[in-house]
Structure formats: C-alpha cells, structure tokens
UniProtKB/TrEMBL annotation:
It is found in: Cell membrane. Pathway: Cell wall biogenesis; peptidoglycan biosynthesis. Residues 12-148 form the Glycosyltransferase family 28 N-terminal domain. This is UDP-N-acetylglucosamine--N-acetylmuramyl-(pentapeptide) pyrophosphoryl-undecaprenol N-acetylglucosamine transferase. Belongs to the glycosyltransferase 28 family. MurG subfamily. It comes from Paracoccus fontiphilus. InterPro entries: GlcNAc_MurG, Glyco_trans_28_C, GlycoTrans_28_N. It catalyses: di-trans,octa-cis-undecaprenyl diphospho-N-acetyl-alpha-D-muramoyl-L-alanyl-D-glutamyl-meso-2,6-diaminopimeloyl-D-alanyl-D-alanine + UDP-N-acetyl-alpha-D-glucosamine = di-trans,octa-cis-undecaprenyl diphospho-[N-acetyl-alpha-D-glucosaminyl-(1->4)]-N-acetyl-alpha-D-muramoyl-L-alanyl-D-glutamyl-meso-2,6-diaminopimeloyl-D-alanyl-D-alanine + UDP + H(+). It is a peripheral membrane protein. It comes from the Bacteria. HAMAP family: MurG. One of its GO terms (molecular function) is glycosyltransferase activity. Residues 191-356 form the Glycosyl transferase family 28 C-terminal domain. Keywords: Cell cycle, Cell division, Cell membrane, Cell shape, Cell wall biogenesis/degradation, Glycosyltransferase, Membrane, Peptidoglycan synthesis, Transferase.
Amino acid sequence: MASPATTAPLALIAAGGTGGHMFPAQALAELLLAEGWRVKLSTDDRGARYAGGFPEAVERSIVRSATTARGGLAGKLAAPLKIAAGVLSAQAAFRRNRPAVVIGFGGYPTIPAMSAAVTLGVPRMIHEQNGVMGRVNRLFAARVQRVACGTWPTDLPAGVLGLHTGNPVRQAVLDQTAAPYSPPGAGPLHLLVIGGSQGARVLSDVVPAAIAALPPHLRTRLRVSHQARTEDADRVIAAYADAGIAADVQPFFTDVPERLARAQLVVSRSGASSLADITVIGRPAILIPYAAATGDHQTANAQSLAEAGAALVHPESVLDAPSLTRDIRAILSDPARASQMASAALSLARPDAARRLYDLVTEIAR
Ligand SMILES: CC(=O)N[C@H]1[C@@H](OP(=O)(O)OP(=O)(O)OC[C@H]2O[C@@H](n3ccc(=O)[nH]c3=O)[C@H](O)[C@@H]2O)O[C@H](CO)[C@@H](O)[C@@H]1O
C-alpha cells in the first residue's frame, strides 16, 4: 500500500525574484503542508536566496528562466532560449510527476511552470500581491482558473475576474498576530527600520541622521534594528555609534516578526508583504514608498495605511532628515496617538489571507 505521503496531492508553487514574491509563497506552502499536501517550489537562484524559511519538507527545483525586460543586448537575445529550455524541463517534470495544481506568485522564474501548466492542462492560478499587476502575472491572468489579489482593487486585464484574498503572511508573523502593543513609555523605545527584502539605500542615507537629531530623552532610550544593504552597513553602524545610539544593523533580519512585535514604531518601504506583516501584528509606521516600483504601486500600498490613520507617508521626492525627525518624535512622544495608529493598522489586517488562498487552491485542484 502506498504511504499517505505519496498519495497526498502535489501543489507546485512557482515564485521568483525578490522576497516580495517568495514570502507569500512560503505562507501558502506552510498551510498546504499543514493540510497534508506535498509541496514543490519552483524558483531561480535569486529566489532561492529567500527560500531559507520554507519548511524542509518543501522540495525545491531551480528553473532556468530569464527576462527580456532587463540586461544587455546579449542577455535579451539569449532570454527566449533560456525560457524555452525552462519550459521544456518543467513539462518533462510535470509528465513524470503531475501536480494537482500550480500556483504562481509572479516574477519571471514562474514562466516555465505556468507555461507547462497551460500547455499540459494542469489546474493553475496566480496570486498578485500589488494593486498594479506584475508583467508575468499579467501575461498569464487570462489563462488561469483563479486570479487571487493581495491588494484591492487590482488593475486586472479586461475580462479577468479577480478575487481579493489579501497577502498571506508567514506562520512566524501569524504567531505574533495582534501581539499586545506596548506604547512608547518611560522605558526603551524599539524602532525597526526595514527596506523590503533587499534593503533600501535611502533609509540608510536618511534615518540615522533623523534619529541622531531627536532630543536626548528619546535618543538615549532608542534600540534601533536597522536593515541595511551590505555595502551601506559600515557607514550606518558608524552613524549610530557617533550619535551614541544603540543599533543592531544587519543586511537581513530573520526574526522580523519578533522585532515587529517589540517595536514601538516601524520605518519601512511599502512593499506588499512588509505592509501585510505590519498590519497583522499592528504597529504604527512611517512609510517611504519606492517610487520606481511598477506603476508606483508602493505609493498606492502606503496610501491605504495613511487613509486608515495607521501610517505617515514620506514620498522619497521630498524626504529629508528634519521631516523624519519631526514625525518620529511626534509618534514616540504621544503614546495615545501611537496606540491609535497601531489599532488602525490592525483594522486593515488580513490574517486569513493564506486560508482564503488555500480555499481557492482546493476549489480548482484535481
Ligand atoms: C523594491 C520592490 O520592487 N519591491 C517589491 C517587492 O518587494 P520586496 O521584495 O521588497 O518585499 P516586500 O516588502 O513585499 O516583503 C519583504 C518581506 O521581507 C521581510 N523582511 C524584510 C527585511 C528583513 O530584514 N527581514 C525580513 O524578513 C518583511 O517582513 C516582508 O515580509 O515585491 C513586492 C510584492 O510584489 C512589492 O510590493 C514591492 O514593491
């Protein structure tokens, strides 16, 4: 008799590029495994760097793919060949071990698995994290059975019906759902500074200077966790040290959920998963959208928190240290306001997003 593990349905999750695609994929993978599914992850080398948090039981396959949207002429000319090779190998893999469903989270590394699913008639769906669809998701939107949307409204191509699920967050974030907020008081003040999955130079340029200009009664109590790109880390460490500020500077914090739970205030980019994490745990935020994101979607993402009273937004075009000092000081000096912002963030939370996505998976899998 076959073991339950081999009779369990197989879900193939395709995601790639940045953590912005990988973290929601991880959230769904965790739930599928908990529900008894087998799960495979199809990604590229870059995506694999963010796969460290995926459960061990998730089988990984590194695909060949490429984009014609970036890189030099030689890369652009070679891209169709690489994509074709990736599609052929995904089709061969599907013939050996046919998935019950394929779920794409966007990014060009999803092209081989999504194409193989379309050509072999495997049930398939996509999840779009942002209000403006990514290029690859847009390409497949009309060829899948379900289009799940993290943000609403999402600009779907004509004739495509989207379903709003929210952006799924990892189990480690769910473990801190609505962890009680401790408003800024007389004790230490925890400030978390995160720039999306890759870090953001602008935060390293401006935040240490803004914090150094805070009045001593706030500055001396600060405990800063600052995610800085490796190339910026030395100057960020030096800036905090010169100002006598206790700071933990790392290129990537593997324990963001715990640091978020401790934080009195978060300064962050407004990528989809960062905001999902901030709202599920419920913390006040100052957001600095990445203006060059496709369709300026980070500004739209940030706007929904600003409108709910959960965040203050500083567009990069007018960002400077004095205005940031003013807002950090205003929030850290006003516990009632900070608590209101934390509650407003929670009011936008979708902790059930992974479950909603899972329900769509079970509807179409066969
Ligand atoms: C620059 C860019 O184009 N960013 C896009 C990218 O986001 P990007 O890859 O920057 O990621 P997101 O902001 O969506 O998510 C980052 C995730 O990394 C976690 N984290 C962050 C820092 C850290 O030290 N440790 C850690 O675990 C955050 O808690 C969050 O869960 O994809 C998202 C989803 O398509 C988009 O909304 C973003 O606009």
